[in-house]
Write a structure and sequence with these properties.
The protein is mainly α and 263 residues long. 76% of the residues lie in helices and 0% in strands.
Length: 263
């Protein structure tokens, strides 16, 4: 077999291993998935009428706020799901299985690839489930074209890839699973201070730069424009740049940590 075939075989084996772990221990994924679902239901049914009235300057219309809030919830779902990658990697590191993999005749990058691809697949599945809940409570995307739907799916997958690499790096750098979970919490908190739930121009002036210049806001604005068939301006390029930058940073961080000798 060629070196490429061997690498693909090892990556497939590690991917299968991680998917089996996710299937045998689904409680972590379900707990992380519960957060965006609860926030979606909370903001739609508790705050929906008030928020829509304040944003529109007219009567309350919960359906308009559903359309506004769902894109942010979908990206928050990815941020929540990738915490599982950080915990899984930290667990492997602390239990010594990664040190064992280093001594085996396998492709060194297959361990990381298995974690990353497995978590991206879990993130996409989580987004589909949360999207189904959103549709069930009234979200509709009537003006989006098939091309815009395809672009929206591509953005979600790219965002999941970028955040997963960052989460893998966090897991590699953490001494245990608990520390990895805590270090990855900003991936859930950042959407709360973005344009996910309220427009940036409605925020205090001193707070607007914090919400504007972070990776979630341009991604949310791009996804919102694609799903609703409205303009996205330059948010699309900014979101892609953020995704590529985070993916490269996370990859280099993870590869550097993986290449270090165990202490």
């Amino acid at each position: 077999m060629s070196s490429l075939s061997l690498a693909v075989r090892d990556c497939s084996t590690m991917l299968r291993r991680n998917l089996l772990h996710a299937r045998r221990y689904p409680s972590l994924t379900l707990n992380l998935l519960l957060t965006p679902v609860m926030l979606l239901l909370l903001f739609v049914y508790i705050f929906g009428d008030v928020m829509s009235a304040g944003m529109g300057g007219g009567g309350a219309d919960r359906s308009e706020y559903i359309a506004y809030v769902v894109p942010g919830i979908l990206l928050m779902t990815i941020g929540s799901t990738v915490i599982g990658a950080a915990v899984s990697v930290a667990t492997d590191m602390s239990e010594g299985i990664v040190a064992r993999f280093r001594t085996m005749a396998i492709h060194r990058g297959s361990v990381l690839v298995g974690h990353v691809v497995g978590n991206v697949l879990q993130s996409v599945a989580s987004v589909v489930l949360v999207g189904a809940v959103a549709v069930a409570i009234g979200f509709r995307s009537k003006d989006a074209t098939a091309l815009e739907w395809l672009a929206a799916f591509g953005l979600l997958a790219l965002f999941a890839l970028a955040l997963t690499w960052i989460a893998v790096g966090m897991g590699m750098a953490s001494p245990n699973a608990e520390a990895a979970s805590n270090s990855a919490m900003p991936l859930i908190l950042l959407p709360l201070i973005s344009s996910a739930f309220t427009p940036i121009d409605a925020m205090p002036g001193w707070f607007q730069p914090i919400a504007q210049y972070q990776p979630f806001t341009p991604a949310i604005e791009t996804l919102r424009g694609l799903l609703l068939g409205t303009g996205i301006g330059n948010n699309g390029w900014i979101a892609v740049a953020w995704c590529l930058g985070l993916a490269v940073l996370g990859y280099r961080w993870s590869a550097s940590k993986f290449g270090q000798d165990p202490k």
